[in-house]
Amino acid sequence: MASSVLPNSLFSTLTSPHSPTLENAQPPLSASVKQPYAICSSHGVAANFNKPRRSFTAACAASDDHPSSAELPIELRYPAFPTVMDINQIRDILPHRFPFLLVDRVIEYTPGVSVVAIKNVTINDNFFPGHFPERPIMPGVLMVEAMAQVGGIVMLQPEVGGSSSSFFFAGIDKVRFRKPVIAGDTLVMRMNLVKLQKRFGIAKLEGKAYVGGEVACEGEFLMAMGNS
């Protein structure tokens, strides 16, 4: 535990007859999980030897070598993603089925504007035995496909004039892959609806996919609605 070294001027202020008494001073910061401080005690040097020495308590930051014993265990630190649409609701919207449904849960949805969804990437996904046997990496084209499916959730909603029938890729542009996605990752995909031409059934979307807060893939998508 690090000790606090305070200048003599501070001791003089604390013992000055014109300064407020320590009994009326604010209490020190207490040790807690959210406020990891340790309490260090020190004694001031009295400016007037006729007066008794007064003690004060200073709050000192705890050393990094001694983490708080009350820290939450790792399994309790991270809450689950919220559920705005579960897999059954997603299946009611998207026409895809196994093994090509690549959206597990919608965690945020703004009608006609954007949607955020997740894909839990597991070693049981059917593409891993061949891509690659010694290093399981999610294929980039499937990341793009997963993002397109998330975009379809925006397109096929009644709020934007869509229908729960089908949609197709019309084009992709400016696609970049920033980092590999491997088994055990959670792919978080945000798709924003940029423009929708209801007359022609064409929509333009921008999307980014994240793993651990870092961009793994991004691009622009052009989608076309199918017939009801």
TrEMBL record:
Localization (cell): Cytoplasm
GO CC, one annotated term: cytoplasm
Biological process annotations from GO: fatty acid biosynthetic process; lipid A biosynthetic process
Gene Ontology MF term list: (3R)-hydroxyacyl-[acyl-carrier-protein] dehydratase activity
Pfam family, one: FabA
Transmembrane segments: none
InterPro entries, A to Z: FabA_FabZ (IPR013114), FabZ (IPR010084), HotDog_dom_sf (IPR029069)
UniProt cross-references to Gene3D superfamilies, sorted A to Z: Hotdog Thioesterase
EC number annotated for this UniProt entry: 4.2.1.59
Record keywords, A-Z: Cytoplasm, Lipid A biosynthesis, Lipid biosynthesis, Lipid metabolism, Lyase
Domain of life: Eukaryota
Biological function: Involved in unsaturated fatty acids biosynthesis. Catalyzes the dehydration of short chain beta-hydroxyacyl-ACPs and long chain saturated and unsaturated beta-hydroxyacyl-ACPs.
Stored NCBIfam families: fabZ (TIGR01750), PRK00006.1 (NF000582)
Protein name listed in UniProt: 3-hydroxyacyl-[acyl-carrier-protein] dehydratase
